[in-house]
Input
Amino acid sequence: MVGKHSKVKKSKPLLGNHQKCWIWGRNAVRETLSAGFWKIWELYLSEKLPAEEIAELETRAAQLSVPVIVTTDKTLTQKSRAGDHQGMIAKMAPFPYAAAEEVLAQNTDTPLYLILDRIQDPYNFGAIIRSAEILGADAVFIGEQEQCDVTSLVCRTSAGAVNHIALAQVSDLVAFCQHLKSENINVLGTAMQAEETLVDYAFQKPTALIVGNEGTGVHPELIAACSHLIRIPQQGQTESLNVAVSAGILLYEASRQRGFQ
Output
């Protein structure tokens, strides 16, 4: 029984359960620590890391009030349940998604947004985020249903890019697309049967680009909500490209047209 003067210690919110709250690997941990965007509860470092690197990471962690534990590789493996931690693991809070309305209010007159429709594979999700950040997208919007969340695996696959681009959840992607169009932002869908190819579209315009589910593509209701439809020309016999590869090709063409060098 808790007395009236006793304090109940509140548990810290975690990214998933205690088994899934860890991120690990050099790129993911260092980028997350450097950005200071996603809350780290605890940082564990291998005693085998170079002393100067441990000191560097401890200094940055102290700036963020993150406790640092220097310990054995075995302990890191036991906690993260991963042998490829590269001497760094971090216990994470839930991912801090941006508010969609705030993202829309902050960007330029010619934004380039990416909308993901039910991307379910964390490797694809992470790879898409990485391409979006590298190739200059202003934000990534995802739905709340049938969509992979930002997890440890997504963070690692993105090489920490989740810390450097706005990621926002939207309850209704169709309504969101209609809102974008009312704000004079072209909603660009991808469909194999589209007449226009990606090079036919002028990406210098304010654009929200949709890529769809690994198995079924962009949902028909979202296709109907698009301002334009484009396709990536294909020559081989394989039915379609991987969604992460498609997103990378489309974003590269957008960046090329916008003067990316």
